[in-house]
Amino acid sequence: MIRLTAMLLVLLANTCNQQKAAKQQIGSIQDKRWSLVNMNGTAQERSPIWLEFDTATHRFSGNGGCNKVGGEYELDGNEISFGKVMSTRMACMDAQANERESAFLRMLSDRTYTVKFEGQQIQFRDSGRIAMLFEGFKKVAVKK
Fold first, then answer.
1. Beta bridge partners of 46
2. By the 8 A CB rule, do 113 and 124 touch?
3. Quick one: pLDDT at residue 93?
4. Buried (b) or exposed (e) across 76-98, using 16+ Cβ within 10 A?
5. Is 57 helix (H, G, I), strand (E, B) or coil?
6. pTM for this one?
7. What tens digit of pLDDT does each residue of 96-143 get?
């Protein structure tokens, strides 16, 4: 009985520590501009696609490559859900850029991913595979 109680306490402590670490990492999501480096297993070299997160309002904004994007997100533990995704409607001059942006918007629209942080990268995982991989860069302050 004592062993079982000790094992349960260790398990509970590990779970709390993992949740605390995840909250600290998720809190740092707001401090960076997240540039897309891989989508569905395809490297995105010099991708113009990026996201920024506002943890106070649970909103995100960014660029889909040709258009500004934005919407709502919710973080719950190690899961992130996107909703009410919108974008401006300017045409991409390059057909490939247009296809990439359309795919990116589909991947955000009403989707939930498991979030995994590794160094300066954040992974959005779907069924164990990396659906989108972003690299974080410190936001540049804009002078007004």
1. none
2. yes
3. 87
4. eebebebeebebeeeebeeeebb
5. coil
6. 0.78
7. 999 999 999 999 999 999 999 988 999 999 999 999 999 999 876 655
Strand partners, 82: 73
**What digits encode the pLDDT tens for the residues 18-42?**
444 444 455 578 889 999 999 999 9
Instruction: Give the model's pLDDT for residue 30.
Output: 80
Q: Pick from 89, 100, 85: which is nearest to 46 by CA? A: 100
Mode of pairing for the β-strands spanning 42-43 and 32-39: antiparallel
CA 6 from centroid of its chain's CA atoms: 37
Distance CA 129, CA 107 (A): 14
Query: What tokens does 132 get?
Result: 């989108």
Distance CA 112, CA 125 (A): 9
Q: State both tokens at 66.
A: 């040709």
* CA–CA gap between residue 50 and residue 45 (Å, rounded): 13
Which pair of tokens denotes residue 57?
Answer: 């309002």
DSSP secondary structure, 71-118, as one string: EEEEEETTEEEEEEEEE--PPPSSHHHHHHHHHHHHHHTT-EEEEEEE
pLDDT reported for residue 85: 95
